[in-house]
Amino acid sequence: MTTYQQLSDLLRQRILIIDGAMGTMIQKHTLNEDDFRGGKHHVHDELHARICNHNHDLQGNNDLLVLTQPDIIRNIHREYLAAGADIIETNTFSATRIAQADYEAQEFVYEINYRAAKIAKEAATEYSTPEKPRFVAGALGPLNKSLSLSPDVNNPGYRSTTWDEVVAAYSEQLHALIDGGADIVLIETVFDTLNAKAAIYAVNKVFQEKNCNLPVMVSGTIVDMSGRTLSGQTSEAFWNSIRHCPNLLSVGLNCALGAEQMHPFLTELSRVATCFLSVYPNAGLPNEMGGYDETPEHMASVLQQFGKEQLYNIVGGCCGTTPDHIAYMEKNARTIIPREIPQQESYMRLSGYEPFILRPEINFVNIGERTNVTGSAKFAKLIKENLYDEALSVALQQVDAGAQIIDINMDEGMLDSEAAMVKFLNLLAAEPDIARVPIMVDSSKWSVIEKGLQCIQGKGIVNSISLKEGEEKFIEQARKIRSYGAATVVMAFDEQGQADSLQRKKEICERAYKILTEIVDFPPEDIIFDPNIFAVATGIEEHNNYALDFIDATRWIKNNLPGAKVSGGVSNLSFSFRGNEPIRRAMHSAFLYHAIQAGMDMGIVNAGQIDIYDEIPKHTLELVEDVLLNRRADATERLVELA
Question: Would you say residue 238 lies in a domain?
């Protein structure tokens, strides 16, 4: 039986207890600089000599104590285990290369994490029984640098670290924790979901490298009563962003708030999360001295009430909690029935700052097209002239006009597309009125898509991948998209070129769907087919059925490829009438009317320029539909005459 299966079985039977604060317990020892170095008498090998002679102050570096004061850490673990904890966390909250740079202690990172896991594992083994097995969670804490937030209020697009640096830091930590014997990976105190997504990416990478598959717990932090993380997300948006995590055992909330303040946000998360749920709050809100006053009895009674509402499966404490708090929780937990994992419909669940769920009652999703340098001359000019603030106003106009997703494309020969994508997305992240909606990262260059995915904390969409370069490249890119936690548009395009007939559209989409669902294990609801909207009324007879073929392909996809969505670039349809806005608007509206009836879910459109179908003049509508539905041989000539 795997550890995941063992924990899953236990969590269905009873509430599991995770330990309390490590820092609170360490502070009771009032350690000085010499103690953090291990004391002169501890210099008995090369590693301890390096620590003792380290050229930077080390006091306050609690993670280092697993090397210099291992007995203190071991005894804290034992106290929590004796109080009834089923899961103890390694003392590695800040044990990454990035966080240890504050002490110039990056050279000790592997040893800290390896030894922390070893010490915790020894203690857990000591207290384990067949009736009450104990587990070690390798703790990946938050960083002191953010991928979503600028440390400079005057430069909102600046970031003090990069995606690659964060992934590398968490990967190094993970290797050591797994080598040391951790049973679980715990990504905790998440204040920036993009940092958490980088940690999840590292988990996926390290699991493949080490050929292992430990259960993973993810715990976010709601910072105040607004119900959002520091980087702006609601708890449901946070869930949508991280639910792709491999071997996900639980999601939950910890830190920042006391139990009473956490209740509404835990309730929201419990409603949507399709895995087990954890909660480990602080011992109330901090007092004027920065301490925590909530008694073990009171905190445990509040959490017991949450338990009666069946809001969690794992409970424990964060800042200010002690073994006494854990003992009261363990006693109360014996009377609590574990939360049952809710069944959720397999809808596409996206997010920006806020969740966006593509439910059946949503008739059509508008994807704003004006933040695309290839489709908007105004946007392209602003980006080329480095007028990013004005370019952001284009995105805001799209959202204000009703775009539920915004498509961002920087593919222009005179641009450094990767740099432009990163700069725009980083600036956009500081604009909550725009960042509340999901992002579609759009490029014909894979490197640009990947840079874009490394900048969005929500669950977005890739536009696009295809079989153009063969199955191997298609599978590789699809797996990457999955590891970034995004949905994807799949173009009806294979090694022979773009699908320009109904039969080719069906063949390519079916082939891609089978590869994605059977080989890549890509969720069907996160697959969006674009069966190619081509220009009609071009004067070339072979083009006359293009609109109808798209509509028929849409109907076929919805009937034959379960869960898959259909999208397309609507403005392509009317290229023959560039400059004639009334005709183009009528064409787009009439086309969407028929395509949506066939099952089209979303489309890249100018959200502010769609006419109401029933308000199109009858004569215009007749001529437009003659073209779109290929109803008569002279349809193009008649529409051109009207234009």
Answer: yes
DSSP string, 399-419: HHTT-SEEEEE---TTS-HHH
Provide φ and ψ at 280, rounded to 5°.
-145, 90
Residue 188 is part of which domain span? 3-23+69-333
The enclosing domain of 305 has a CATH number of: 3.20.20.330
Is residue 9 included in any domain, yes or no?
Answer: yes
Look at residue 378 and tell me if it is in a domain: no
Question: How far is the C-alpha of 533 from the C-alpha of 613, rounded, in Å?
Answer: 19
In the sheet with 461-465, reading across from the earlier edge strand, the strands are 565-566, 527-530, 487-491, 461-465, 439-442, 405-409, 365-368, 602-605
Total number of domains constituting the chain? 1
- The Cα–Cα gap between 170 and 191 comes to 16
Q: Return the pLDDT at 42.
A: 54
Per the structure block, which two tokens stand in for 136? 């070690």
Q: Give CA–CA dist 215/182, Å, rounded.
A: 10
The CA distance from 405 to 398, in Å, is 9
Provide the 8-state DSSP code for 631. -
- How far apart, in whole angstroms, are the C-alpha atoms of residue 41 and residue 335? 49
DSSP characters for 453-491? HTT--S--EEEEE-STT-HHHHHHHHHHHHHHT-EEEEE
φ, ψ of residue 39 to 5 degrees: the values are 75, 145
Kindly list the averaged pLDDT for each block of 10 residues, start to end, along the chain of length 643: 97 98 95 87 74 93 97 98 98 98 97 98 98 98 97 96 98 98 98 98 98 97 95 97 97 96 97 98 88 94 97 97 98 96 95 97 93 93 96 96 96 95 98 98 97 98 97 98 98 96 97 98 98 91 92 98 96 88 92 96 82 88 91 88 82
| Phi then psi dihedrals of residue 4, to 5 deg | -60, -45
Does an H or E element contain 546, and which?
Answer: helix 546-560
Domain-located, residue 460: no
pTM value > 0.90: yes
Structure-token pair, residue 231: 């980087």
